[in-house]
Design brief:
This protein is 39% helix and 15% strand. By secondary structure, the chain is an alpha/beta fold. The chain has ten helices and eight strands. Bound molecules: phosphoenolpyruvate. Residues 14, 173, 178-179, 215-218, 236-240 line the site of phosphoenolpyruvate (PEP).
């Protein structure tokens, strides 16, 4: 599977630990109606693990892609609480988020663990939205790119020999902007996306596009100026992805 299905914007919803099975199914069905008319955008959604099977079933035959909010690096065995790639593929899940800041900070997932999860998932055929981003103190001390690079480079190194960087989507999410209502400025987003793009170019051919999404309090009020930036290929959206009325306008903006 390749993450690049053309050069469409990816508008991805991370539903986190919100929406149970019925509510996920209902929102997925509403989005399904919307996806048929999209020309420049793709919808990707990451419901809770419990709602994945029902959601893929509700979206069968549609262009919307369903992803898991995390994935195990190992194929099977004694890994209590984890979900394997094969289990996800059996229910038509086609991508996974890896390294979300909530996993890194609240559940202490290390850089090495995140890289192992992403590498294992890609190797077994999933696409991965790999989340990177700096804390407020790291931003203020001027070490944003150092931090982002330390999170991303080991994965690019691991993927470089088998060409599977094509299965990768990056989500740049400043930790201080996630769920806080504080959006990074367009200058901050443009600069970090350009730096990530430059880092990626050391591992890819000019034809290989690795989409770089921005995430952090994206709403219809700020998205137009973000999606207009160079090297921004879409958004990873938390809060505003939970309601059709807030998510649909992001797609309208992406379609302009
Ligand atoms: C996220 O969880 O990845 C996210 C960006 O959340 P929010 O849009 O709510 O800031």
């Amino acid at each position: 599977m390749t993450a690049q299905t053309g050069k469409k914007n990816i508008i991805a919803g991370n539903w986190k630990m919100n929406l149970g099975l019925k509510a996920s199914e209902a929102l997925a069905l509403t989005l399904r109606g919307l996806s048929d008319n999209l020309k420049k955008s793709e919808i990707w959604i990451a419901p809770s693990a419990i709602a994945l099977a029902a959601t893929t079933q509700a979206l069968k035959g549609s262009a919307i892609r369903v992803g898991s909010q995390n994935v195990c690096a190992q194929k099977a065995g004694a890994f209590t609480g984890e979900v394997s790639v094969a289990m996800l593929q059996e229910i038509a899940v086609s991508f996974a988020l890896v390294g979300h800041s909530e996993r890194r900070s609240l559940y202490a997932e290390s850089i090495d663990q995140c890289v192992a999860r992403a590498f294992g998932a890609i190797e077994q055929g999933l696409d991965v939205v790999f989340c990177v981003g700096e804390s407020l103190s790291e931003r203020e001390s001027g070490s944003t790119f150092e931090v982002v690079s330390a999170q991303l480079k080991p994965l690019l190194e691991a993927l470089k020999n088998n060409g599977s960087v094509r299965s990768l989507v990056i989500a740049y999410e400043p930790v201080w902007a996630i769920g806080t209502g504080k959006v990074a400025t367009t200058e901050q987003i443009a600069e970090t996306h350009r730096d990530i793009h430059q880092l990626l170019s050391q591992y890819t051919t000019p034809e290989t596009v690795v989409p770089i999404l921005y995430g952090g309090s994206v709403t219809a009020d700020n998205f137009a100026s973000i999606i207009a930036l160079e090297h921004v290929s879409g958004a990873l959206v938390g809060g505003a992805s939970l309601l059709y009325e807030k998510f649909a306008p992001l797609l309208e903006i992406s379609e302009l």
